[in-house]
Amino acid sequence: MSVDLFCYTSDGAENANRSIRALHIKNVDLFSKKFLISEPKDIDEIERGIALDYNFLAKSIFLLHLNDKSSADLVTVVVETVKNEFGEGNILMLHNNDIRM
Description:
It contains 4 helices and 6 strands, in the order βααββαβαββ. By secondary structure, the protein is α+β, with helices and mostly antiparallel strands.
């Protein structure tokens, strides 16, 4: 079972990186091995179009990947944790870049 969450943020990559570092510090158990988070990057035109399809104006993107398959039941916890860190209206999370979480 592949779980990749595409996370579009309204923050630039530098600010998104601060939030990601905070997630790592506050949730070591989740983000040390169970779920991996990529470095955020500024979005390109294709990614911008995908976010706009969901009425979301994104500035950066990062990926969240389920690394430990036995932790698949924690996906909803991870989604809520990330949304809480970024703020509900500041992040769009898409499972496999398709299904809104």
